[in-house]
Design brief:
By secondary structure, the protein is α/β, with parallel strands linked by helices. It folds into two domains: 3-169 and 348-368, Rossmann fold; 172-347, Glycogen Phosphorylase B (Rossmann fold, 3-Layer(aba) Sandwich). The chain is 41% helix and 17% strand. It contains 14 helices and 13 strands. The strands form two sheets. The protein has a seven-stranded parallel beta sheet, sandwiched between helices. The chain has a six-stranded parallel beta sheet with strand order 10-9-8-11-12-13, sandwiched between helices. Helix 6 (199-212) packs across helix 11. The protein is globular.
């Protein structure tokens, strides 16, 4: 395998986009010829190595007035044209619709297509149209990468034998960060403001924390998704007159310097694919409290009571209780911090790159047979 192509919607600020950027950069650094085929370009995207070739495979200006069905097939056609022109040894698709497009575009090209599931399948892959496409297309995949066992079990029997579970890689900037000797009385979170992250529940939990520890603040870092979550948070903060101790910090380019200043990291998602933000916080040695959300990402890296706390999804009282415990028990927080940082031993960028490289090489060899 010398030429590898990744396909996804864009490289904007999101979990799948972050993983593709990290992986593509690692492959390029190892001398592979790397392509990223995207549908569109965002204003704020993850940086990629200058040796990577970015190719637009999305709709063209003349396509905008065409029907929805026509646009769907045009997207497949443009991706297929990319595959025929650049002839990668393997194509790896990331995320929901990109998986379907890649499997359709790859038919008859002799290029093995590996798909990747990046979200909780329940609620995202169980519509009637999904069930039809999964039954028709997924058995054609040369391979599939899941993030958790719970994800893989959902797609039985279509993607069991030729799949692999690989967690997300850490960005090197989150390794060996400088931790301030004196911590600030703050609880932090960094994640895109979007409904399934359930930041309103985090705010509700912190209101309880603040009643007992009024000298602590909550800082939420992350861009606005535009789905109305930011407005919900602003209203909740205003209604509780919490403007002096709950802050929406927006995007931050040096998050690795800001997060370690705080005492506790809290994560409140209802579901995830695999929580990059939580992984990063642990790598930076943060004592963490997270919801035990499906499809099992937090439980893969948190051993409850050993290197962090897991609480039930949507349980603001449990979240508040564990945050308060870490605030009050400095010895326990220090122990969590030390153990949490060891997550880099299983999610370091070189380790995850090797897992992807070995699996994709295996897939290509099997396709050749």
């Amino acid at each position: 395998m010398k030429k590898i192509a990744f396909h996804l919607n864009c490289l904007g600020q999101g979990g799948a986009e972050r993983v593709v950027s990290n992986l593509a950069n690692s492959f390029a650094a190892q001398g592979y010829e790397v392509y990223i085929a995207t549908e569109w370009q965002e204003d704020n995207e993850y940086p990629i190595d200058s040796r990577i070739t970015r190719v637009h495979v999305g709709l063209r200006p003349e396509d905008e007035k065409k029907s929805r069905v026509s646009k769907f097939f045009l997207r497949v056609r443009y991706l297929r044209e990319f595959m025929k022109e650049y002839k990668p040894d393997i194509l790896v698709a990331f995320a929901h619709r990109a998986n379907y497009r890649a499997l359709m575009a790859g038919r008859g090209t002799d290029i093995p297509v590996v798909i990747s599931i990046r979200i909780n399948p329940v609620g995202n892959y169980d519509a009637l149209s999904d069930k039809i496409q999964i039954k028709w297309l997924f058995p054609k995949a040369a391979g599939c990468v899941f993030q958790t066992e719970e994800q893989r079990a959902f797609f039985k029997p279509y993607l069991q034998d030729n799949s692999r579970i690989i967690i997300n890689p850490l960005n090197p900037k989150f390794l060996n960060v400088t931790v301030p000797r004196e911590k600030e009385k703050a609880v932090v979170n960094h994640a895109r403001l979007v409904d399934f992250k359930n930041h309103p529940m985090l705010v509700d939990a912190f209101l309880t924390v603040h009643e007992k520890h009024p000298d602590y603040v909550l800082r939420i870092y992350g861009p606005d998704s535009g789905d109305g979550t930011k407005e919900i948070l602003e209203k909740k903060i205003a209604e509780n007159h919490a403007e002096d101790y709950i802050f929406l910090m927006g995007s931050c380019n040096n998050i690795e310097s800001e997060i370690p200043k705080a005492e506790v990291y809290a994560y409140s998602s209802d579901y995830e694919g695999f929580p990059n933000s939580l992984l990063e916080a642990m790598a930076m040695g943060m004592p963490v409290v997270s919801t035990d959300c499906p499809p099992g990402g937090p439980a893969m890296i948190i051993r409850d009571g050993e290197n962090g706390f897991l609480v039930p999804v949507g349980d603001k009282d449990a979240l508040a209780d564990r945050i308060i415990r870490l605030i009050e028990d400095k010895e326990l927080a220090a122990s969590f911090s030390k153990e949490a940082a060891k997550v880099s031993e299983i999610a370091g960028p070189d380790i995850i790159f090797e897992k992807w490289r070995d699996y994709l090489t295996e897939v290509e060899n099997n396709a050749g047979k």
